[in-house]
Every structure is written in C-alpha cells, then in structure tokens.
Write a sequence for this structure.
C-alpha cells in the first residue's frame, strides 16, 4: 500500500510503500516519552521504499541492551517521523501520526503491554466531545480559553 505523510510544519514530506498488516502499537516507556503520548503506533517498511524530502534531524536512543536507534524528526516542528538503525539500515518504522492514511491503518498487534498505561483499556468509557468546543474540564486550563 502506498502512503504519504508530512510533519506538522510541512518542511518534511515522504512517501512509502508499506504492508498494512504490519501496523504495531508499542506501549514501551521509551515510546511513551518520545511520542509525548500514551503509546506509539508505527508501521515498518524496507528503507528503499521510503522517499524522503526535506531536512531531518536524528536523536540516537540507546536501549538497555545497547541497541541504538535513530529517532528521526523534523528539526523545525519536532514531529517524530520514523526510526531506523543508525548504520547500515535496512528498515524504517514510520510513526503513524504523520501518515495521511492513518485512519485506514488498523494495528495488527500491541507490544510491551507490560507498561501499558492502566487507564487505557477504559478510554472508551471516559466522557468526551466531538471537538474542543463544549469541553468543560473541572479546572479549565489556560490554553483552552
Ligand atoms: Zn516540520
Ligand atoms: Zn516502544
């Protein structure tokens, strides 16, 4: 399946050929911190299937095992784009949040459920609204006004 994506500011864009059956949710604590969210959703692709335009920057994450992963992001808006091996890369794991077709890409598997945030399974039962409008938090945050 052909996908395309962009960072938030639009300086980095890409296209890739992916297998839609290889979408993964990762609940590891590194993914929580690096994504700034509850979990990360990625799709793997051979590196030759990724066509990247625009300048990127990398942060090298070193795992407890010593494994090194380059976390590639837009240097302007900091959108996480993909991860890859720092040397002799054969594969990329593209961050689903910056993929235009993300709504169609349903995860096939969840990993690191050991560190899954305990409230996540209850998310569907937490009250919400279709847009920000109408949202009345108990203690309004200044950025919502
Ligand atoms: Zn950007
Ligand atoms: Zn992870």
């Amino acid at each position: 399946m052909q996908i395309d994506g962009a960072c938030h500011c639009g300086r980095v864009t890409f296209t890739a050929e992916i297998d839609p059956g290889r979408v993964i949710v990762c609940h590891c604590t590194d993914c929580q911190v690096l994504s700034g969210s509850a979990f990360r959703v990625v799709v793997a692709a051979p590196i030759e299937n990724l066509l990247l335009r625009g300048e990127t920057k990398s942060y090298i994450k070193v795992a407890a095992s010593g494994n090194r992963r380059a976390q590639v992001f837009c240097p302007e808006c900091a959108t996480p784009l993909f991860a890859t091996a720092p040397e002799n890369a054969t594969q990329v794991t593209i961050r689903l949040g910056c993929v235009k077709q993300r709504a169609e890409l349903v995860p096939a598997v969840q990993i690191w459920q050991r560190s899954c945030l305990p409230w996540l399974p209850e998310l569907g039962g937490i009250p919400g609204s279709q847009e920000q409008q109408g949202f009345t938090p108990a203690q309004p945050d200044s950025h919502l006004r």
